[in-house]
From TrEMBL:
Keywords: Membrane, Plasmid, Transmembrane, Transmembrane helix. The chain crosses the membrane at residues 32-54, 66-84, 114-131. GO terms for molecular function: endopeptidase activity. This is CAAX prenyl protease 2/Lysostaphin resistance protein A-like domain-containing protein. It holds the Pfam family Rce1-like. GO terms for biological process: CAAX-box protein maturation. Residues 35-122 form the CAAX prenyl protease 2/Lysostaphin resistance protein A-like domain.
Length: 132
């Protein structure tokens, strides 16, 4: 996951892309309680809710006796994951989100559970704040 974020960060710097407006305003003019609630939401609630929805429920729809359907599901749920993050405007950020969706989908398929995708999502959130 770190390779994705560092790579996108370096590519964004090389292309002189501006920072995501959403990320620059995330903590602007917020009180301490609001910052705490925002951090709880993005570090805990969002990963739990989004991974349950995209990797738990939606990806499960593609489960069948054919292996390829899960991989098709990984692609489709990754696209839906990007669509759910419409607050971002930079195409590089959207590509990054697609890769995060694919990585967490593969983690779900390989592990069979949601713990690994949730932890990876939390890592992605941390890296996004550090490099975003």
């Amino acid at each position: 996951m770190a390779v994705v974020y560092v790579g996108v960060f370096l590519l964004g710097k090389a292309l002189a892309l501006p920072a995501e407006p959403f990320m620059t305003k995330l903590f602007a003019d917020k009180s301490i309680p609001d910052v705490i609630l925002t951090l709880l939401t993005i570090f805990i609630l969002a990963p739990l809710n989004e991974e349950t929805l995209f990797r738990g429920i939606m990806l499960n729809v593609f489960r069948s006796r054919y292996c390829w359907t899960m991989w098709l599901g990984a692609l489709i749920t990754s696209l839906l994951f990007v669509a759910a993050h419409s607050q971002y405007q930079n195409l590089l950020t959207l590509a990054e989100l697609f890769l995060v969706g694919l990585i967490t989908s593969v983690a779900r398929i390989r592990s069979g559970g949601l713990l690994l995708p949730v932890l990876l999502h939390m890592e992605a959130t941390t890296l996004g704040l550090l490099f975003g």
